[in-house]
Amino acid sequence: MADEVCEALRLDRLLLVPAAQPPHKPATELAPAAHRYRMTTLAVREHPRFEVSDVEVKRSGPSYTVDTLTALQDRGRLHLIIGSETFLDLLNWREPRRVAILARLVVIPRNGMGFDPETPAALKVMRELGLPCFVPAGVGRSDDLAPILLHAASLPISGSDLRRRAREGRSLAFRMPEPVVSYIRDQQLYRLEA
What we know:
CATH superfamily: HUPs
Shape: globular
Strand content: 5-15%
Number of strands: 6
CATH class: Alpha Beta
Distance between the termini: 37 Å
Number of domains: 1
Radius of gyration: 17 Å
């Protein structure tokens, strides 16, 4: 999906930022931040437009997107790629209005799930963030605040399912890059304590 986003938006670079302490996920479900940073690096190391940032891993405290976008401002106009479920939850984030100013939102509906930007829930987010209507990719100027609605192919795989499979010792083949599967196995990540 990330590759398709790069093509559709004509991005020179796609920055992946592993969260050190995601404020909305229990730390017990996740591998330590240093391991997640290393796995992300292994997963994308051969893609010429993908780059992994340690900006959140180096920063102490919860990983708030607004802080990360502020730290990355010197990199030029930013786009924040989020799923449609995340978009509908934006009002619960820290400083959501500022997030929408610091980066142009790119909203991607999950495969197999519909997303109607005209529903009351979506319209409420747009209104409270002071955003104009959604536009398709390639429409508008790069400095435009209008969020982009982008339908990009994605696999029906969730992070929680992958962690569960690893915890249960089940196969991760064809669900993630082999170097990441090897790393999880070698580091014995996500295993239940005996």
